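FAQ: What does a multi-protein file look like?

Like this. Sequence, then tokens, then the next protein.
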Amino acid sequence: MKIDDLEQMESEDLSTLPSAERRKFLKFGLAVTGMYLGGSVLSLSSVKNVHAAGVVPEIGKYPYSPHYSMVLREKLCIDCERCKDACVKTNHVPHYGFRTTILEKRRSLGGEKFETTFMPVLCNHCNRPPCVRVCPTTATWKDEKTGIVVMNPGRCIGCKTCMTACPYNARYFKEETRAVDKCDFCLEARLSKGETTTSCVEACPADVRVFGNLADPESRVSQLVHSPETMVWVLRPETGAVPNVFYINS
């Protein structure tokens, strides 16, 4: 199979391919960049094209230092929800709200057989965040040092425009503060106090979530994202938001 043929295989579900065929993708240095929808991958591109599109920046070309990112090893998620519980406790999330959640996907294997996988989701801390662009009061912005998208509840007027603009439905309105709330990679609760990782990562028993500095070639997140043998994808790349949360199958 030619590389040109592979790059035209949109909507192809890699999990239906034989293991030998999947290995061909890795040998060609291909990366999955699309979003799962009903168990299918919507787009497939070479690593070179991924870099050119800005979906995964090349090593040494990161705008922030540290450039905090998270890698989600989707196949390992068992939906124990310990990450959610830890987030609620650490960030004082009300019972009706969320900073991270887990989506369930079911794919038919034929007949009455199904494969169920779980997809953790959270704020993607985009390099070009639509929420920041639409906020009329600068209540949300990208931290100049870390690139984390943060909120100032005192500036928020509760218009919910940022909630509408978010491609990942990762924000909610917090009644107690009358302001929008969201994941901040535990910047306020942990990172600013000397911790090196988020509460959800620390709580995960299956090593699903990996957090760190993507700009550091020695960091685990950088090695996972840039490994030529790793298939990497992001959610909704067509929005141009350039997210910093990456999904892999290994």
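And here is the next protein:
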Amino acid sequence: MIRHKTGIAGFDELVQGGLVDKRIYLVSGPPGSGKTTFGIQFLAYGATIGELGLYVTLSESPHNIVSDMSNYALNIPTLIKLKKLLFLDLGPTLEYGYGDELHSVITPSFDSTNQPAPEAEAPSPFIVYKEISNFVRQYDIQRLVIDSVSAIRFTSEKRSQEEKEMSRFMRNLKELGCTTILLSELTDPNTYSTEQFAASGVIFMHNFMREDSMTRAVQIIKMRGTEHDCDMRKVTFTKQGLQVLERM
């Protein structure tokens, strides 16, 4: 069974050496818990060993993400310029209507191409999948991060239709053959969603007050085909990114 190291210090040994090849994993948690850093570290590490990575953003500006993540010693700008780490911007235009021809891509030179689109229906999982699929096949992407699935989850008025579309979205994502991380803004690890059931693994990033100080932790809720640690473990931010520490 092929496993891909995340490059996150202290994490891979909790999941038998890494994430299983070509599976989908969900990383959930509240704002400021480290989800974006987790995703970027996963891609950056892969890029350094020859596995091309794609970061898809549906909310935050790629320029902001690159700027923030450049504070870490992950060589993000260099990896982008070498075309080992790519960004695909599917927002925020999506939130106000999406034209089929709209395709905004952050290129290795940090230029952006952006065609204005008329107001249309809210983004469906199918539209988002189509854009990602084209990009994955064009560049032979091996590691994929989507930020965040929450941006496309609540686009249907009917709950049943929403769950059906999300199931189809994840089933088709698996067919792309990437090792994929979906970021989610779910703040309660006990709240169950379609993504949690469909994903091969669920990783929850905690962020809470404890004894008058902010505490961050990671907890592996689910990991199919993998013997894994289930305890909450402290997390800290270092110059190299996230680092997983001792049990809480």
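Q: Is there any per-entry metadata?
A: Some entries carry free-text notes. For the entry above: The mean pLDDT is 85.
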